[in-house]
Specification:
rod-shaped; about 50% helix; about 15% strand; alpha/beta; 7 strands; Glutaredoxin
Length: about 250
């Protein structure tokens, strides 16, 4: 808003200054000044350029620079708050999760150290994941804008490829900070999930999630490492055919 006001003021100001050249006195002054061989007309031109061009340009540059710096600070603040909302999940006592130094190669170890997962209202032995051709980790939170759309697309792939037994299993890793948000969101999914009460496991898996852009899909290798972090991109680009690509990445 401030930038627009400055532009408006400068435009009006320049228009008024330009009007001085349309009046007879301006031409007469120029002629008289040249005839008298004095500096009145050159001084007038200098003042015109200074007032009509240099000052408005300087003001506009100042406004644009200030606006750019403000936008940069605001963007940084939004990014920082978004990152904190993912990493700083709280338990029932609102205690902030601690941060560990982990390697992506430990993903499988962390996941399989969880004795059992959820699958709907039932428990699902984690060891059974080894029976599937492809296992993917689905990182998301109920509050992210694209979550419902990605869940819908992933559900279509999940249901289609699992017409053949043990083709694909998805493990939902919740980034919500409240169990009621987790439960409400997970109720829309047909696959497995790390239980909300497994705070340490979710925290460790979340630390491996480096991009911080929810939702995201990671393909898990048979060795326990990450085959690709571009699962969501594959899903959006290839649809059901993304599964064929994921099969090639698990070994």
């Amino acid at each position: 808003m401030k930038r627009g006001v400055y532009v408006g003021y400068c435009s009006i100001y320049r228009f008024i200054v330009d009007l001085t050249f349309l009046f007879p006195f301006s031409e007469n002054w120029k002629t008289d000044s040249q005839d008298a061989d004095n500096l009145a007309w050159p001084i007038f031109i200098f003042i015109y350029l200074f007032i009509g061009d240099i000052i408005p340009t300087a003001l506009l540059l100042r406004v644009f620079v200030t606006h750019t710096k403000s936008s940069s600070r605001a963007s940084s603040a939004v990014t920082s708050r978004h990152n904190e909302s993912i990493v700083e999940m709280s338990d029932s006592n609102d205690s902030v999760l601690s941060v560990h130094s982990l390697s992506p190669n430990q993903t499988g170890t962390i996941l399989y150290s969880c004795p059992s997962l959820l699958k709907g209202a039932q428990t699902f032995p984690t060891e059974q994941l080894k029976n599937f051709q492809v296992v993917v980790l689905f990182y998301s939170a109920s509050s992210t804008s694209m979550s419902a759309e990605v869940v819908s697309k992933l559900k279509s792939v999940y249901e289609e490829v699992n017409k053949s037994p043990n083709a694909l299993e998805v493990v939902f890793v919740s980034c919500d900070h409240d169990v009621s948000l987790f439960t409400g969101f997970y109720d829309t999914m047909p696959w497995a999930a790390v239980p909300f009460e497994e705070k340490e496991k979710r925290e460790q898996l979340l630390e491996l999630y480096a991009s911080r852009e929810l939702p995201e899909i990671f393909v898990l290798k048979k060795s326990g490492g990450i085959g690709t972090k571009s699962g969501r991109s594959d899903l959006e680009k290839y649809g059901v055919k993304a599964f064929q690509k994921w099969i090639t990445l698990v070994e």
